[in-house]
C-alpha cells in the first residue's frame, strides 16, 4: 500500500541530482563529452612545455597536469587567437598562469570571454615587473549560467590591439549529474 510518505520518498530518490565540478586540462579532453579545447588559428597556440621558442618557462609541477598552452599577440596580429570549449553546466572558471615580468615573457594580459557568442567578461592585467608567475589564477568566473549547453570562447587581445600573453592552464565548469534511482 502506498502512503503519501512512501510516494514522497520514491519521488525524491528518482529525482536526485548532484552538482559536480569538471576540470578540463588545457591539453586534455572534457571527461563528460570527450571533446578537447579547440585552439585557433591552427599553429598559433603552443604546448608550453614543448615550446622552444616561447619565452615563458614554467616548472610543470606548478600547473594542472604539468601542461599549459601558450599564445602571444603582437600589435600586427591579423587573426584572432581563441580557445573554445563546449560544456553542459551552470558555472565556468578559467585558470591561467600569469607572468609578472615585463619582458621575456612580456606579461601583459588582455583577454575577452564569450559565452554562446556574447561578450560576458574581460581580464586585463599589466605586469608589475617582478620575476616569476602567479599560478592557478582565475581570470574569469561565471556562476549564473542557465542550465544547459554552452560554448565558452577565450579571445587573446584584439585585431591590431596591444601585445598580450595567455598561459592557459585549465577550464572548470559545474554540471548537474542525475543519479540513478
Protein architecture, described:
The chain is mainly beta. It has a single domain (18-178), classed as Jelly Rolls, CATH 2.60.120. Helix content is 6%, strand content 46%. It is built from 1 helix and 11 strands, in the order αβββββββββββ. It has one helix spanning 4-14, and strands at residues 17-25, 38-40, 46-47, 69-73, 81-88, 91-99, 109-115, 118-125, 133-142, 149-156, 164-178. The strands form 2 sheets. Strands 1, 3, 4, 6, 9 and 11 form a 6-stranded antiparallel β-sheet that branches. A 5-stranded antiparallel β-sheet has the order 2-5-10-7-8, with no helix packed on it. A hairpin with a 2-residue loop joins strand 7 (109-115) and strand 8. It is globular. The two termini are 20 Å apart. Residues 1-13 have low confidence and may be disordered. Residues 1-17 form the signal peptide. Keywords: Signal.
Which outline best applies?
globular
Quickly give the CATH architecture: Sandwich
Tell me the series of helices and strands, N- to C-terminal: HEEEEEEEEEEE
Helix content bin: under 10%
The CATH class assignment is Mainly Beta
Give the total of domains.
1
**CATH topology (fold) name:** Jelly Rolls
What does the main sheet amount to? 6 strands, antiparallel
Q: In what range is the share of β-strand residues?
A: over 45%
Q: Return residue spans where pLDDT drops below 50 for at least 5 consecutive residues.
A: 1-13
Mean pLDDT: 88
**Secondary-structure-derived class:** mainly beta
Q: C-alpha Rg, in Å?
A: 20 Å
Number of helical runs?
1
**What is the name of the CATH superfamily?**
Galactose-binding domain-like
- End-to-end Cα distance, whole Å, is 20 Å
Number of strands: 11
